[in-house]
Write a structure and sequence with these properties.
The chain is of the alpha+beta class and 404 residues long. It has helices at 4-31, 40-53, 119-133, 157-163, 221-239, 277-297, 317-331, 349-352, 387-403; strands spanning 57-60, 64-70, 86-92, 143-149, 172-183, 187-188, 192-193, 197-206, 210-211, 246-255, 261-262, 265-274, 301-310, 314-315, 357-365. Keywords: Hydrolase, Manganese, Metal-binding.
Length: 404
Amino acid sequence: MGTEQQITERIKELAAATEETIIADRRYFHAHPELSSKEVSTAGTICARLARMGIPYERVAKTGIIATIAGTADDAYDAQGNPKKRVALRADIDALPVLERTGLPYESKNTGVMHACGHDCHIAMLLGAARILVQMRDQIHGEVRLIFQPAEEISIGSRMMIKAGALDGVDGIFGMHIWSEIEAGLISADPGQRMANTDWFRVDIEGVSAHGSMPHKGVDAVVVAAELVVALQVLVSRDISPFEPLVVTVGEVHGGEARNIMAGSAYLTGTVRTWSKKTREAMPDRLRRLIDRSAKAFGATAKLTYEAGNAGLSNDKKSAERAQVSVKKLFGEEALADYQGTLAGEDFAEYLERVPGAFVFLGCRNPKMDAVHAQHSCYYRIDESVLAKGSMLSTQYAVDFLAE
């Protein structure tokens, strides 16, 4: 048995030895992205990596994976074979429908699909943590569960994995997101709410089609859609208190069939991000009222479909404090970032509603290498020097959790 300092030094040594592999894995997954619930090749490659390490795994939820690293510390299991404790580490594995424009040598080979959010990094970092952990089994006082989760970008993957048993017998969970708003190498691990409630909407507009030269003969659904895009922003700036965080984004606008035909129908889709439960509950009615009145003003009709996504992500206080201690052990107190949180959403929130845990942000911003673009940008890139740090932190957190 080693001291805490010796264990941390061992983690650092093993991470340094596997850093090139972590980066190589990240580049491979970046070059071969797959959309949500279609991560067939991605999952197969992860399984091959796990098998090579001798880590048993189970395929679930079509493209999800649950793997197990059993500790060999004297108190890791009781006489009945039950682990003293079980901690889960999670990585999401899906990509986005984005046409990459980074020009990187390992740019996406799947045209129109890109790891523009960093999930390629998450896969590589968790595989890196696995490589470290299998060499430290004697320091694992229980069991580490690895969760490779599909379909995070469409907000259903965590629920699929939970239904498949990913949290069965789990005492705590840890997750991480590579983050473009934080300087490379710094880590935010604060308690409390860190990410927003995430909901989705679609508006179907019905007007009357007509010849483009005779607009008075119809009701232009495209004009109504354009009006709604603007009106929805008025809802943010004039209908909600400026002290209440809220974002309404229209991501798609579709309408029309030909350049000389006034569109008789159109639709738009988008997302609503809220911080408080009260505002979240009020948004469907507020959107419906605004949409109905705007459409009627033009003589059209509009139907709102509103879909609840994931609740806001909130870190358990004890788990966040444990994560902060792990950061300090590895990188010193100066590595802790002061970050207020974000109105982005994360389906990791579903795990945290069921078991205590922490979700941290690992900074990857570095202007010197143009790693400044926001998540979901076609120009998104990261400072790869932080990847080994992510593997180290996941390892340290798991070891610390199980040693308590």
